[in-house]
Each structure stands twice: as structure tokens, then as C-alpha cells.
Amino acid sequence: MVSAPVQVAPPVQAPARVRRLPRWVAPVAGVVAVVALYVAFRGKAVLPHDDDASVFHWLNDARDWVDANRNSSPIFLYVVNYLRLGVSEIYTLIQGALVALGWPGLIGLATGLGWLAGGWRIALVSLAGFAGVGVLGFWEASVDTLALTLSAVALSLLFGIPLGVWTGRSPRVRRIVTPVLDVMQIMPTFSYLSPIVLLFLIGPASATVATMIYAMPPAIRITSLAIQRVAGVAVEASESLGATGWQTLSKVRLPLALNTIMLGVNQTIAAALSMVPLVALIAAPGLGVDLLRALARVNVGAALIPGVAIVLLAIVLDRMTRAAAQRRDGGGRARVVRWAGFAVLTAAGLALTPVLAQEFPEQWHVQLVRPINDVAEWIETHWYTFTGFLNDVVAYGLLNPLQDVLTSAPWWLITMAVLVFAWRVSGPVAGVIAAACLAGVAALQLWQHGMETLTIVLVASVITIAAGLALGVLAARSRWFAAGLRPILDAAQTMPSFSYLLPAVALFGNGRFTAIMASFIYAVPVVARLVEDGLRAVPATVMEAAKSAGSTDRQLLWKVQLPMARGSLLLAANQGIVMTLAMVVIGALVGAGALGYDVVAGIAQQEDYGKGLAAGVALVLLGVMLDRITQGANGRRSPHKKRNA
Known about the structure:
The protein is mostly helical. It contains 27 helices and no strands. α15 packs across α18 and α18 packs across α24 (566-586). The longest helix is centred in the first third of the chain and has 45 residues, at 74-118. The termini are far apart.
């Protein structure tokens, strides 16, 4: 019997492996395409600036309509005007109460509140801070600044805490409110001023409203976070016992979230104090007036002293609210001691008010303006060669070439390039939003000034992020370096932004580089802190595993710490860019020009109001564009993760 032949199956051929192009090919091809289009269309569709643009006239007409109907339109008669009068009355009431206390009474009250919040240490800080304000010779202006701050903070908390509770309990409300808060925090402070003045005129009322808008987002965000963090077990236990929704909120949620809400109060006060000097541009009283006068006279000492006074107020209020947030209630005896100390210290100050002079004694003033100016003059004289060289290098090596490219390229090419870049870095939504923002700047007929502002922001951001990254890495790797750097960063963060301009002017003169240096000092502390925190947050087990595998310190940094801290690094870049934009705009006061100058001109000159209002909107659009790109990048997976997915 013959067996059938065995059929042998042909060998299975493996599918041909598709060769993928290297990852760098697409970006390089995109850059080559943009460069080729730039060379081909350079100087076309550049949208040069026109002070007589139709948009500006339309906005001026809108302002004229508001002025003509301010006392006849129902919206103004029954809403806006009453709001303005109400806010003005709140400021007047608080300011009158502070003045009536007299300087001994106010110092006694501040010391008593410090004792009540955190014991004798905070009481001593409060005493030294308020007495220091008087010794510097700015007592009256400081009282006005404190009144404006307290008015804005009171209104911010009155609206912010309930809204924060609502957003914390309702995901739907949270989805609606979060984008609004993002825009409010991105907006450069100058952008608030023109529309606020249009509605509320100049003076304390408009200054309070502008400060309130700037200071409210932290109150809403932190209160919402505090409500969300309340343990579900506690809420369920309350509801199982038959408590109503209001009872659960008032008896469970709010008491458990109180310490975190107090941190929101702390951040609201800090935001208000940073805004208060700026609203001197719209006739707000206080220390900002002295800062503006010093800026006009280019007097470094006269600008730093009121800045130090604001820092002292900020330190006192910061320590007081932080201590109140971290306080743990002791027994009944501890509570009695706290309240008794508060009563004794406050009563002692009030008792001294009729005895001592109403005004802070001039013989107690310490004159520091001349010594500071002497130091500034010496630095200017002896460092002129270095500062001039640095100014020229940045101007001719970075600013001028980049500005020439951005202002000579077609607007559609820059918009397309930003769309593609943002899409690749942060996703399609970020790309579309970024391109829409640039299209909005073009529609406002402020393209050239927008590109000039973007030039300064990009150069300042690169310098700021590079320096902040270096400082953050050094602080994360050396606790001694971190300990020495911390007080410097604290002082830089609490100093009002105006105070940075005068030293920069003394060193570098008026111009764009001065604004870059001021923004560098303003934004570096935040970048450095975020980088340090991100690197320190890398788990110790991961670090030990890398060391046991033989990694060097350099390899630990580049292969472990920096990749694992990617989220913190991108957040640092985001905050650095947004803060740089805010400070560069203020740099318009020292010759930076561009959109910041348009905003200032719109506030100062009636005929330029439309241009100033449009420039404020353009600044918001640039801020949103830069924020979306950097925030979206934080949500995207890194290329390393994509390859291993």
C-alpha cells in the first residue's frame, strides 16, 4: 500500500516591516517649509500699525455713547452707578475707620490680631511691620493702601467664597467657571483698567473693582478645592443622621474646609496687594502714587522705599493669615489667653491714640532715599560698560532680529506656523485656540504692536526660564544653596512690580531691555520654586534604584529627575511666560512700547481710549495663546511614553 505524499506547507513569510521615518524629519520639514514661505512672501501681508484704524474709532464712539448716557440709561442709573457708589462707600468706611484709630490704635489692633492668630511671634511681626511703615515715612499712604486692599479683599471673599463652595459641590458649575478663572488669571493687569474706567470712572471705586477682579480667582479656586477635599465619609455620616443639605454644608463641609479656605484668604490678600500699586494709574490713593512719581523722576530710592512699605504690609498680612489657617484650637484656657491678649494689646493702642499725635512723628522717620540713590549712582557709573554691553548684545543679537522676522513675515504665515506648532505640542484644541487668538490680534488692527510685544515676551521668557531652571536645579541638589536662595526669592516675590522698574532703569536706561530685566526679577522666583519642588518630588526609591545601577549625578539629573518632573517643569514654563507677559506690559512705562504703551496712552489720553481698549484685548489674546500652548503640553504624553505605549 502506497502512502499518500505528505503535503509540506510553504514557510510563513513575516510581513514586511514598514520603515518609519525618524521623529525629527517632520519638525525639520515644517521649519524648512516655514522658512521657504517666509523668504518667498517676506514683506507681504504684514499689517503695519495704523493709529487711525477703524476699530479704534468704533471703540471711541462706544465710549462717547457711555459718557453721554451715563446719567440717563437704566443700566447705569440703576445698576452701574449704584455699584460704583456702594463700592466707594465701602472704601470710605474702611479708610475712615483706619484713620480714626490713629497710628497707635492701628498698631495696637494689628499686634492684637497677630496675637490672636498665632501667638507672640506673629504679634511681634505685626508690631514691627506696621511700626516699620511709619518709620519709613509713608504712614498715611500705607493706610490708604491698606484700606483699598481690605475693601477689595472683602468684596472678593464676599463673592468668591460662595462661588467657590458652589463650584466645589457642582461639577457642572466647575466646568463653566474654570475657563473664566483661567482667563482672569492670564489677563495682564493693564487689561483690566480701560474697561473698568469706562464703567466706574477713575478713583477709589474703579481701583477697588479692578483689584477685586484680579484677587478673586484664588479665593474661588482654593475654596472649591477645599470643599472637594472634605472626606466623603463625614458627609455621608451627616446625611445618614438626617441633616439637610444646608446643615451638612454649615456643620460639616465648611468647618472641615476652614483651614484651606484661610489659605485662599491669604492668597487673595497677596494678589490684591500686588495689584494695588498699579491702580494708581486710575487715580487710586496710596503707595502706588509715590511709586508713579518716583518713576516719572527716575528716582530709585523714592521708588524702593514705598515698595518696601508694601512688602512690610504684605509680610504682616501673610504671616497673620497663614498662622490663622494653621492654628489648632487648644482647650478653653488657651482660647481665653488668646482673646485676653488681643483685648489687652488693642486696648493699649487705643488708649495711646488720644495721648500721642494723630500723625506718625516725623522725628522717628529714617531717611533712606539718599543712601539708596548714592548706591544706584555708583553702580550706574562703575557698571556702565558691562550693562551697556549686555543691553547691546540682547538688543542686536536677539530682540532686533526676532522682531524683524515677526513684523516682516505675512500674518497668515505666523498664524499657520503657530497653529501647527501648538497642534503638535499641545493638541488640536490648543492649536485652534492659539491660531484664533492671533487672528483676533490681526482683526483688532494691532498686529505690528502685537508682534513687537511677543518679541519682548519670548526673549524675556527664554532668559527667565533658563535662569529659573538653573537656580531650581541647584536648590534641589543643595539644601545649603536652597536655604540661602529662599529669602532672596521671598523678597523678590513680595516686592510690587513697579519697584523693579527703577533699578532696571538706573542700570540700563529706558527701553525694551529694562522691561526684560524687570520681568526677569519678577518671574524667576516662581520658576525656580516650581522647578525645585518638582525635582524634590521625585520618589527617593527611584533615585536609589538609579544610583545602585551606577548612574552618575549628571545622569540622575538628565535621565531620571528632569523626565519625572516634566509636569512641574512645564508648569514652571507656563507661569514664567504668563508672568513675563504681565511685567513686560508694565515695562511700557519705561520705554518698552508696543501694546503696553497703547494701553497707557488709552488711559492717559481721551483720544487714544479706543486704541488702549483694543490693546488690552490683544494682550489677553496673546496671554491665552501662550497659556494654552504651555498648559496643553503638560497634558500630552512625552515622546518617550509614546514610543513605549
